[in-house]
User: Fold this.
Amino acid sequence: MKGVAMRKYIGTMVIIVAIVSGWSLVAAQAAQGNSSGASALHPYVEGDVTYDSNVNNAPANAKGDTYLDGIAGIRGGYTTYALDLSGLGFIGRRSYNDSSDRGDFTTFGDVLKGKYGTRDQMVIEVDHSFRRVDDFDRYGSEAAVGGISPDSALDASSSDLRDIHQIGVSLGRNLTDKTEFDLGYRFDSLNYDSASLYDLISHYVQAESAYRMTDKTAGTLTLKYGLQRNDTLDETADYTAARIGLKTRGSDKLTFKVGGGVQNYEYGADNNKKTSFNFDGTALWMATEKLMLQFGGRNGMQLSSLYADNGTEYSIFWAGAACRVSTAVTLSTAASYRKDDYLEPVLADGLLIDRQDKGTGARVRAEYQTPAAGMKLYAEALYEKVDSNVSSYDKTSVGAGAVLTY
Amino acid sequence: MIKKIMMMVAAVGMAVSAMAAFVQPTQEQINQAAGNPAAINALLAGADPEEAANVMKAVIAVILGNGHDAASQQASVMQAVSAAFSSLPATQAFRMDFSAALGTACGGSTVITGNGGAVSAIQAAMASTGTPETGGALAASFGDSFQKAGGTLPNKGDKASDKPTVATGYPNQPLPESK
Assistant:
């Protein structure tokens, strides 16, 4: 690693350790053992062995390899009437059987969340996450911050070392018995280690009002503005979206939030403009106490990490299910689909083409809670395929591991 | 006539008392209620389901940090939740809303989601409220909201729960989440 990059790496590590340590001290104030007052701390270690059929996500001549993942971390929380803090800090190391196929790497980071107040007065949520990842971002789904859907999705291959930094702040209040209002800000930074990939930064502000139409249903109006920046090339883009929709409230088995409207994007040196339909929706169905299903989909526009003066209009859909088969066994599965349409033609093999990528993924996982308290075993299989008129690949991985939590 | 007026005054007084505005408790009051379920009644006066749920979430969290053994803590959690149902309006609709709100509040608390025994104790207290049918509905309502809020219902031997492993999103991407 280059000298400057190494200093930045070490500096970031120090900051993360300081943040997590400081947060842990606050959460564990007057702690005796691992739990005291309204706080709790749970250290954990996790290890797994996985076979990956295509470790570099290569379009041809795929190389398979086996790797070991080891992770140590701590989860914690602090609860009072109006305040909830939760968070985790982790550090992990991946070692490939044949490191000539792909280099070993270290991953670390934090996910910290705080919530204060009640909606009748004012609820304030503050979130922070920094994650250094290479390959799958295993804590990404825990790091939704600020009440705004993340737009820092990758169009580059995930097999690149990258730093993800996210900060979110949101305010929410019930203005009347029927009207709710939420205002949120979100910062996303995606910083690649590779000089050939562009680093992206975005700032988003979202305002949302909901008006209760029935006991269980509210109409919503959502306005969103984003300032996106290619930090490598000093390019910017403006994103705006407006949606109307519906959301449920209360304790129904099925809860959902859906919205549709229009989105506008201004990007590139020539201030190119693109306007299209915008949607964002999630649904969660507790089919039984043991079976939970999730569905969702949304679209947006973002700058590219691969091409200058270009971006993608993406659509993502996903579905998943989790089933508690017994008091010791849980099965889960998920499938997802993403389509990227690049806004400007790209150069491929000397020709300008309209690039389109279609990615699909599927995952199944079984967890077994052993009789030994705090020890969980799991097995997992993933399939991933990207069809592109520029660069396609597919891969399968299977693995098994154990988590030991104190 | 005087007797009727006195009865009316008494009735109005009881109604006003029942409609007394909820006062957010101090942490000291929460701590006291955690050790004395009889004190929960006063803390929940005038509370709507969400307010009552936040009070009980805080009480349960304090119980889980009192340093007692797990069996004693679970018994205390059951007593506290039962005391809450005794203090709140006895309609099934209110109880269902409270159970759901408590599930949401507890599902957002790492202190509680990390203690499977406590979650089981909460559901057991709900299941024993009213008839088996109505009590079961309360426990189920709690369980649904608890899982929707990110909690995982306890498996045998669970210590700290991860987020439900329902979906991972597009390969290599964080799962988009809308609130």
